[in-house]
TrEMBL record:
Pfam families: DHOase
The protein, known as: Dihydroorotase
EC number: 3.5.2.3
Keywords recorded for this protein, A-Z: Hydrolase, Pyrimidine biosynthesis
Keyword NAD: no
GO biological process: purine nucleobase catabolic process
Region (Disordered): 250-277
PANTHER family to which the protein is assigned, alphabetical: ALLANTOINASE
Principal EC category: hydrolase
The organism of origin for this protein: Methanoculleus bourgensis
Superkingdom of the organism of origin: Archaea
Gene Ontology molecular function: any one: allantoinase activity
Gene3D superfamilies attached to this UniProt entry: Metal-dependent hydrolases
Domain Dihydroorotase catalytic: 48-132
Length: 277
């Protein structure tokens, strides 16, 4: 076999060293050396499986200046992500089977990596129709108001969970508590959407879900929230590596939901046996 490119002496996840042979844009062989047009010494590197990013916003359409399927998936691949899961808060939001199918067709024409699309969750939405149209999961399901959605009351949220569970679906959950006046500083924003409130919201959402339901909690920002979660959790890079103290109080670049927290041990340290994405 002659290859276009061979990555020499890569450390595999098992600890074994091997060559990775690439031809025609595909990995063709992992193992013993072969001849190649180009070789790269990778003896200092470890090869990891492609990552799945469960929470992306590919935008497109009237929001294309922010991101679209091509630019977003090119960025994903450059960072080692080979599958992305798109959130449904597009314009318009993905709340019907027809809109979901159109979104999937858009991705099929422009994405450069694997993808899946979530269905929007709201009272009266055709959840079964969107599931049959190819939805990977449902939500974000908002247990609190955020930038793109009002929070659902417990009775409505529990009813939607029951419908999703009956389909065998996965619900992705934005869990927070919101209190007090509109914040004007980062500290006030943190207090209005506190870490303790996030953990309480996680426990409340878990209690509303039917037994055995598949749950995925989005962007957990504290160790306590991870410990409280039933199901999968995800943690964002900014919550892992940034803290509130790194920014001026009026710096709106550092405002997001859930907020950046005061410096604390990494949320991943609390994962233990919990699955984390």
């Amino acid at each position: 076999m002659t290859a276009d490119l061979v990555l020499r002496n890569v450390t595999l996840p098992t600890g074994r060293r091997a060559d990775i042979v690439i031809a025609g844009g595909f990995v063709r062989h992992v193992g013993a050396p072969v001849r190649a047009d180009e070789t790269i010494d990778c003896s200092r590197f470890t090869c990891l499986p492609g990552a799945v990013d469960m929470h992306v916003h590919m935008r497109g359409g009237v929001q294309a200046e922010k991101e679209d399927w091509r630019t977003g998936t090119m960025s994903a691949v450059a960072g080692g992500v080979t599958v992305v899961v798109d959130q449904p808060n597009t314009v318009p939001p993905l709340t019907t089977p027809e809109l979901l199918r159109a979104r999937i067709r858009e991705a099929e024409g422009h994405a450069v990596c694997g993808f899946a699309v979530n269905a929007g969750v709201m009272p009266g939405a055709d959840l079964e129709g969107m599931w049959n149209a190819g939805a990977m999961a449902f939500g974000e399901t908002f247990a609190a108001p955020s930038s793109y959605s009002e929070g659902l009351d417990p009775e409505t949220l529990g009813g939607l969970f029951a419908r999703i569970h009956a389909l065998g679906g996965l619900a992705t959950v934005h869990a927070e508590e919101v209190s007090g006046p509109a914040p004007t500083t980062l500290t006030a924003h943190d207090n209005a959407r506190s870490g303790a409130g996030e953990a309480r919201a996680v426990r409340a959402a878990s209690a509303l879900a039917p037994g055995g339901m598949r749950l995925h909690f989005c962007h957990m920002s504290t160790a306590a929230s991870i410990e409280a979660a039933r199901g999968m959790v995800e943690v964002t890079p900014h919550h892992l590596f940034l803290s509130r103290e790194m920014f001026e109080e009026d710096d709106t670049r550092a405002r997001m939901n859930p907020p950046l927290r005061p410096h604390q041990p990494s949320p991943l340290e609390a994962c233990g046996s919990t699955s984390a994405t």
